[in-house]
Amino acid sequence: MNSSVLSAAEAIVVWIAFIRCGWVAMGLVRQLVRWNRAIVNKWGWVETLALPEPVLLAAATFVLYRQPEASTGAFPIALPLVGAILAIAALVLSLWAAWGIPSLSSGHYVLPDQQVVERGPYAWVRHPFYLGVFLIWLGLAAAYASLLVLAVTLAYVVPIYVLYVRSEEEMLQSQFGDEYRRYQARVGMLLPRLWRRPS
Question: Under CATH, what is the fold of the domain 2-186?
Answer without folding.
Answer: Four Helix Bundle (Hemerythrin (Met), subunit A) (1.20.120)
